[in-house]
Amino acid sequence: MEHTEDNVPAPAPDSRLKEAIHRAREAQAERTDVQSDMRGAEIARLEVLFGNLGESLNVVPPDNDMFEIVLSKGNRPRLWIDMLAFVVMGRDRRTYRFMRDTRDGRQVLFESTDPETVSARIHDYAAHRIIEREKALEAAGDFAVVAEDTESEDSADTAPVVSVSRGGFGSAIASFILGVVAGIVLLLAYGYVQIP
Q: Positive or negative CA dihedral for 144, 149, 153, 156?
């Protein structure tokens, strides 16, 4: 007896595979629900910390824009304190981890389950950053250099005071033009030497 394509019986659908796919989809949906619930719990806890901070960091002087408290609700929710420091929830979803990015990598500054304690540490961090900024501004000065001639104290003429201030827009343009001209001269000299 010859078998033709019409005579070949169609394979019976395996209901075990369909049931396994159905179970896998249900399990995945449950995991997704659990993950979204955990993420929602993280966001809720970070919102509690945000509420504890409240408007307290708005007392920073208006010329100091170092701090802007922002709650980002991405894949890993974070409460940003400034450009480097932020708070995330730990693996247990109950521990606040106050972290800071440094040149050497990410650094944990403080961990606690109590939002009040973390809030106090964030205020301490902000205070230290404000003081560091003030010291840096004092060290930099106002970019003015005053020089006095102290050699001739006995002379009746007072030493001239030389004041050098930072240049404005005109000096920046002049420097740019001078750099372009110097670059062109160097290219022409290089071409003259290299091309026979």
A: negative
